[in-house]
Design a protein that fits this description.
Layout lengths: L1 E11 L5 H11 L3 E6 L5 E8 H11 L7 E10 L8 E3 L2
Parallel strand pairs: 2-5
Antiparallel strand pairs: 1-3, 1-4, 2-3
């Protein structure tokens, strides 16, 4: 079953290549969508794909790259829309 999830990752997640490694992990798991920095210092992402793959990416976000410090991951699950082609880092 395909799903969509919007996540907000809080902690020390900007300036540590979090978006880059999220993109690499998403591509590895065949997840489409995007990731971006938010003004409050958190990172937001929107992920679509097979449920197991999206869940694997969300699980990765709970730790992130080794130099990140993740304090909280807020996940909102939504209906799959199929609107993404690939995975982009939004500026």
């Amino acid at each position: 079953m395909k799903i969509r999830a919007t996540v907000i990752v809080k902690g020390l997640v900007q300036g540590v290549n979090f978006r880059h490694y999220t993109q690499q992990t998403a591509l590895h798991h065949n997840v489409s969508g995007w990731v971006r920095n938010l003004p409050d210092g958190s990172v937001q992402g929107c992920f679509e794909g097979e449920e197991r793959d999206v869940n694997a990416l969300i699980d990765w976000c709970r730790t992130g790259p080794s130099w990140a410090r993740v304090d909280e991951v807020v996940v909102e699950r939504e209906e799959f829309r199929g609107e993404f082609d690939g995975f982009e880092i939004k500026r």
